[in-house]
Each structure stands twice: as C-alpha cells, then as structure tokens.
Amino acid sequence: MQHEETNLFCRALQWISLAFLITLPVNLAHAQTEFERQTLELPTQAQQPSYPTNLVTQDTPLNKIEFIVRRNQTLSHALDNVIDSAQTVFQISQSANSELFTNLRVGDKLIIWTDDDNRLQKMNMDRSRVLSFHLERQDNQFHIYENHKTVDTKIKMASANINDSFYLAGESAGLSPRTIMNLADLFAWEVDFVRELRSGDEFKIIYEKRYLNDEYLGDGNILAAELTVGGQRKVRAFRLEVDNQLIGYYDENGQNLRKAFMRNPINYTRISSRFQRGRHHPVLQQTRDHRGVDYAAPTGTPIYAAGDGIISYKGWNGGYGKQVTIKHAGRYETVYAHLSRYGKANRGQNVKQGDIIGYVGMTGLATGPHLHYEFRINGVHRDPLKVKFPDAEPVLATHRRQFDQYASIMHSQLTRFDPELTQLALNFE
Ligand SMILES: [Zn+2]
Q1: DSSP-assigned letter for residue 266
Q2: Could you tell me the distance, in angstroms and rounded to a whole number, from the CA of residue 312 to the centre of ligand 1?
Q3: What pLDDT does 188 receive?
Q4: Pick from 171, 151, 155, 150: nearest CA to 222
C-alpha cells in the first residue's frame, strides 16, 4: 500500500514536471495551426513580390518607419505622422482585408514606408514567422493581403531506449517536449508508464518536423509509434486523418487507443483517498465504504467529463454538495461531487469526453477542496482506477481501407526502422 502510494506520488510528480515543461510549447501550439499541413494556399512567387525587391523599382527611395503598437493604440497612432493621416486611416478601413491592419494587438510591429511627400506607400507586419500582412498603394487605392511562407514538413524517425525516464529518453531522441508529451498521451490508456515500463524498454516514432527555409520551426504530428513494454509487449499507434482532420490514433487492428472513459477526470496533483471498504469518514466520524476516488486539488481546478454522455443530474445533493452526474452509453454513469461551481452544460445536454463539467470545491461534507468521483456500472459502484473501460469506437468501415493501407506501410517502417528515412510515400487514394 505504502509502495503504491509512493508510486502514485512519483507519477503525479512526473506528470506535473512534464506539464510544467510542456506549458510553453503547448501555449504556442495555436500559432502553429497556420501551417497545420505542408500545403498552404500559397499564391505563386510571381504574384508576391517581396518588399525589398519591390522597393528597388520605386523612382525615389521610400522612408521607412517602425512602429510598435502599445496599449490602447490603433492604426491611427501608427499613421499619425503621415500626411492626411485621418483620411488615410479611413481609406484603409474601407479597403478589402482592412481587418488585417485594423485589428492590431499590443506588440505588433508595423513597418511603414512613405514617399517624399510623406504619403503612405506601403506597410507590412509579421503576424508570425510564417504569416505576414501587407499593404501597398496602387493608384489611389490600398491593396491589402496576407502572405504565407511555405513550411516544409519532413518526416523523421527516432527511437530510444528508456533507461532513467521516458521523458529523458524522448529528449535524447531529439523530440520536442510537446512531442514527448503527445507520445505519452497516445499510450496513456494502454500502458502504465510508472509500473509497466522497465529499463531497456524502447520506443520508435515516425513524426513530422517543420522547417522554414531550413530553420527548424517545431515538431508536427506523430504519424506512428511503437512502444515496447516490460521487455516484450509491443503497443503501436497509427494516426488516422480524413480530409486533414484528425480522427484518432488506432492500433494495427484498427482498435481505438482511447477508451470510452478517461481514467482520471482531472489533471490531478495527488489522489487523497482511494476506493475502499470500511473507510473512516473524516467528517461524518463514522466508518462507511468509500465508493469513489477523492482527488485533492485546489478549488477551481477544472473537472472533465470522463466520457461522452448526457448530464443526468446537476444540483445540490446533501453531503455531496454541488454535484454533476453523467449518464453514458450503455450502463455507465459517472458522478462528480463537492464542486465549487458547475460547467456550462445543463441537465439533459450532451457532453463530450474532456468537456469541463465543473470545478473542484468543498461544498457539502468535505474537509478540504477535492473532487469526489464515482464510477457506476448498472448502478453498482466500481473502482474507476481499476475497472476495465470499454474501448472507444474502432476505425469506421468507411475509413478502413485507407487506414489499413497506411498502418501497414507505417508498421513495416517501424519494423525496419531506418533513422535516415526522410521521405515516405504518404499519398493514399
Ligand atoms: Zn469521496
């Protein structure tokens, strides 16, 4: 028991440190959606003169000004010094795509070019490393457009032996923190990373790396992965994408790697009380079964729906305080108690796995902020940390052929494993 507790604690620590390490890349993730796939709607080079070349064609050199947007500043501030400032700003606001320059954010850097009469001629702003906005005067109008740079996606393979920790192994293989985290997440249902992995276990991964003019931008998607567990068991993951939309990750048989339920409905710090019979209740001062799991966590910590379902109860429930109950497909029900407040979904509404249904609190009979979580099958309480969850949906019949082709190619790549591999045939009908 003591050992188990220690393990849990170690695991929690591991995940917290992972979560900490991962914070920055994850927050930046939205910026990367601009180059989600290797193809971007990209006008041809000829349609897109870059600024320096264009400037050469000017009769007279332009004056260049840099302007960084500060709090409460707008385009008017940026163009304060050009001639006919107000009129210019108005004219821009009436132009197509004007929002590119009127929705400015603090810290945006505008580069403004004016001619010798101090008339605005050009303006440009980098929104990210791959996206920039441009304005140029054409006759007496402003032409405003976006420019996406091409991002090259290269497919890489990496592998490592897991000795000290999964995370360190990932680092040694050259994976970004985000990719390491995503890789662990892929197998989180199948593998208990603390108890099952042993020294010498191995992972292999086929994933995307993104480059802008040979400069490494970041990792892209994981396409396939294999993890050897306990020296022999191999678990594999293959990505299924349809019309550039991620459908999910499946094993070689098309079984979903996700389960219908998350093991923990919270990114927990530590589990304060496990499912047990005859526990002494800390508030009621009497012994009774503890028919759920308590997750100690700060008030306000979000609580996620463990699986898809319908909110069947949302309200005060005696000693349970503010409670939400979700009814899931089949015979499953999950209960979340002592909430400080509820999520948005109301009784009778559908929720998806991972939706926030409430926040940790200590309403009802509770000695401190925690989530009391119950998992019921046919109305009978089961230990959510031990129960075998049903699988989420396998690959749909309509995608089966595509998936099988893809998985079989990826599978043989993983088996052969060629770290020099940089390009794979990825076009399937
Ligand atoms: Zn409890």
Answers
A1: S
A2: 20
A3: 80
A4: 155
154 beta partners = 209
Q: Kindly give the distance from the C-alpha atom of residue 317 to the centroid of ligand 1, in angstroms, as a whole number.
A: 13
How many A from CA of 293 to the centre of ligand 1? 6
Q: What is the pLDDT of residues 79-127, one digit of tens each?
A: 998 999 999 999 999 999 999 999 999 999 999 999 999 999 999 999 9
Q: How many CB atoms lie within 10 A of CB 55?
A: 15
pLDDT, tens digit, 9 for 90 and up, residues 22-62? 322 322 222 222 222 222 222 333 333 334 434 444 456 88
3-state secondary structure at position 93:
helix
Residue 127 Cα to ligand 1 middle (Å): 48
Cα–Cα distance, 276 to 335 (Å, whole number):
17
Q: Which amino acid belongs to residue 427?
A: N
CA 389 to chain centroid? 24
User: Cβ contacts of residue 301 below 8 Å, gap of 6+?
Assistant: 266, 267, 359, 360, 371
Is 424 buried (19+), middle (13-18) or exposed (0-12) by CB count in 10 A? middle
CA of 13 to the centre of ligand 1 (A): 22
Residue 409 in 3-state DSSP? helix
User: 217-248 burial string, b = 16+ CB within 10 Å, else e?
Assistant: bbbbbbbbbbbbbeeeeebbbbbbbeeeeebb
Kindly state the tokens that stand for 163. 């000795």
Burial 266-287 (b: 16+ CB within 10 A, else e): bebbbbbbbbeeeeeeeeeeee
pLDDT for res 122:
95
Distance between CA 179 and CA 184 in Å, rounded? 9
Using DSSP, how many helices (H) and how many strands (E) does the chain show? 8, 23
Distance 261 CA to ligand 1 centre (A): 19
Domains in the chain and their CATH numbers? Answer: 2-37+152-250 (3.10.450.350), 45-148 (3.10.450.350), 270-382 (2.70.70.10)
Residues 6+ away with beta carbon under 8 Å from 419: 157, 158, 159
> Coil, strand or helix: which one is 12?
helix
Selection from 294, 305, 293 nearest residue 384 by Cα: 293
Per-residue pLDDT tens digits for 359-372 = 999 999 998 999 99
Q: How far is the CA of 278 from the centre of ligand 1 (A)?
A: 13
* Rg from Cα positions in the chain: 27
DSSP annotation of 391:
B
